[in-house]
């Protein structure tokens, strides 16, 4: 069985494909499982247990427009896929599955031979897992990610001499409405002590730089590194803190104790394990969006602006005590 899983979206969405990938591999151990993901999702896809091939769909640049879609579709056709699972509901994703030539296409997008309704109230991880079940591949919903090979020396260098606990901190997010104020991060990290390791995309270096400056040299600012390097550092952390964003979900998949700050998005969209804690004010307007709106619908983002560092500290310390940190 040669299976194709199409979901070109955010980094976290790629991590959520893991259970479906493992289910397909368990059902057909000698088969081939390929993933179609975005450039940012590709590094995480390569670390998913059971993934044999990663196909990058750069839908905003090199593969944009009808010509790019057609070119990638022709390339996929060479893979002779028997099955395509389309967990991304867009027209483009459905077209890619069609162009791949897979005779059986199960998913939420147009052009699927078995099109299912997308239940947006279910946890994100279920979107692809339920499609795998429809194909006869059963599996558990737990996240899993391998530590990237060959980066032990890099992690050693960044963390050399770091006092414990080592705290992975992901203050950024794709949408500004999901970001906690830098001053709140500084206050929290001062209280927790240890060594904060700041992580984020290149365009978030201003944010992490402000937090590092507020901590007076106590933090290791690694923002702007590659996804693989960030994952290598996350794998070494005693605790990871951040919002509902990709690198935080990578930490969860690595089995790291994790504190997630939820503002406009909802914790019920995730299957949290005992070592993972959601912090939310539980306002009547929460959650207000699937991934985070560009602006707060009420004009003032009380869901995060009113979240005090002391509340997050209490949850973080409880997880550190469980770990013995």
How many strands, which pairing sense, and closed or not: the largest β-sheet? Answer: 6 strands, parallel
Q: How big is the Rg? A: 20 Å
CATH architecture of the largest domain: 3-Layer(aba) Sandwich
Give the terminus-to-terminus CA distance: 45 Å
Classified in CATH, the superfamily of the largest domain is Glycogen Phosphorylase B
**Helix/strand-derived class?**
alpha/beta
- The arrangement of helices and strands along the chain is EHHEHEHEHEEHHEHEHEHEHEEHH
Write a brief caption for the model.
The protein is 36% helix and 15% strand. It is of the alpha/beta class. The chain has two domains: 2-134, Rossmann fold (3-Layer(aba) Sandwich); 152-323, Glycogen Phosphorylase B (Rossmann fold, 3-Layer(aba) Sandwich).
